[in-house]
Amino acid sequence: MTPVLKKVESPGDTDRFIRFPHQIYSDNSPWVAPLNGERKKFLSPETNPFFDHAEAEFFLALSTDGKTLGRIAAIVDHDHNRFHKEKTGFFGMFECVNDVEVSALLFNAAEQWCRKKEMDRIRGPLNLSINHECGLLVENFDDPPVLGIPYNPPYYADLFHHWGLEKTRDLISLEIQLTHIPDYLERAVTLIKKRNRFNIRCLQMDRFEEEMNVLWEIYNAAWEANWGFVPMNHKEFIFTAREMKHVVNPRLCFIAEVNGEPAGFSLALPDVNQALKSMKGKLFPFGWLKFILRKRRINRFRVITLGVKKQFQRLGIDAFFYHATYKQLMEINIFRVDMSWVLEDNRAMIGPIEKIGGVPYKRHRIYERSLTH
Q1: Phi/psi of residue 75, each to 5°?
Q2: What is the DSSP letter of 250?
Q3: Where is the domain boundary, 140, 171, 202?
Q4: Dihedral sign for Cα atoms in the order 170, 171, 177, 182
Q5: Is 199 left (phi over 0), alpha (psi -120 to 50) or beta?
Q6: Which pLDDT score is estimated for 283?
Q7: Torsion on CA atoms 7, 11, 15, 20, rounded to nearest 10
Q8: Window from 75-84, 90-99, 240-249, 313-322 with minimum mean pLDDT
């Protein structure tokens, strides 16, 4: 049966695009369905400010009798290309049946679209950029994904390789089983406090918009040297922050200041995927009730970001963040924490995490293929 390509053009097509993953993942799969309403907002240029500096086309692969077999997004992020002085196109939102003909149809559509945009390489999966979910899971398919980290079947890697995609970077997830604060970390923080070179405070939710301005400035400064990083404009950062606001525990968002200047921040969020799992992407009729009941049982947090501006990186701020996060999580009886993701070659980040008990337990991969030949 030869698959047919269809561009997403109507609201019905968008619904089909959003709901297709439910055909790939069974009820006992670790995959967690995102909320349908949230996905519509995220994929719409009318509501997501990502599209102020990017463009995308969405495609479906259909059987001749109209059954959905796969989906893909082709993306050009003009901010990425300006920042890195590249002509890189991206693909993402990839889901597909285990069929190389179907996957090739989708990859070819993304390639042709990127060629029309005069890109010289295609990279992915990114959903929709490095600032969103990214990477193909290639190790550990048994543990459920944490909030903001993608999941996929093992056979996707074969589909990628068959089309000629090659690894460009791996993203590592580490896990810590919290038992006690390591002695060396206690000693280090005691010494750091005596030096009194910075102060740490928690996020103030009653000043949320002002606080987001502070975090935005730190974010773009602290991560600018990372491979693939793209600065987020203010509108996009606020959009993302508001989506997270309802799950933020301000006692687990720490801001460091040096002589009043914002110097770094760390943020740990509850793994609300544990509560979303049973909702299957639906809020109604009983989705919110399920979420509220299951939210109380969440037993894992994800440290979603931890960064310090370059000029302040030798003051021990990162150690203080680790200590404060460790202590606060144990006080609320959370003993399992995911720290993700970290670039595989970022030993300056992986080393300290391993030193406080972190163990690599998942690996996601970003692939690339040249479009110049």
Answers
A1: -135, 140
A2: G
A3: 171
A4: positive
A5: beta
A6: 66
A7: -10
A8: 240-249
Pairwise CA distance, residues 229 & 80, whole Å: 8
Cα 250 to Cα 270: distance, rounded to the nearest angstrom: 12
Provide the residue range defining the domain that includes 50: 4-171
Looking at the structure of the chain, the number of domains it has is 2
Could you tell me the CATH number of the domain that includes residue 161?
A: 3.40.630.30
Rg (CA), the chain: 21
∠ CA 269-273-279, nearest 5°, is 140
Beta strand segments in the chain, E: 4-7, 54-62, 68-77, 88-96, 121-124, 126-127, 133-134, 136-139, 166-177, 199-202, 253-258, 261-270, 301-308, 336-343, 359-370
What tokens were used for 373?
């030949």
Convert the pLDDT of each residue in 125-141 to its tens digit: 999 999 999 999 999 99
Query: Token pair 């701020």 is at which residue?
Result: 317
Yes or no: say if 9 and 59 are a contact pair by the CB < 8 Å rule.
no
Q: Is residue 373 part of a domain?
A: no
pLDDT band for position 225 (cuts 50, 70, 90): confident
Q: How far separated are the first and last CA of the chain, in Å rounded?
A: 30
Query: pLDDT digits over 153-210, tens only?
Result: 999 999 999 999 999 999 999 999 998 888 989 999 999 999 989 999 999 999 999 9
Give the chain's mean pLDDT: 93
Weakest-pLDDT range from 69-78, 174-183, 282-291: 282-291
- Distances from the Cα of 244 to the Cα of 94, 104, 166, 283, angstroms: 24, 35, 33, 17
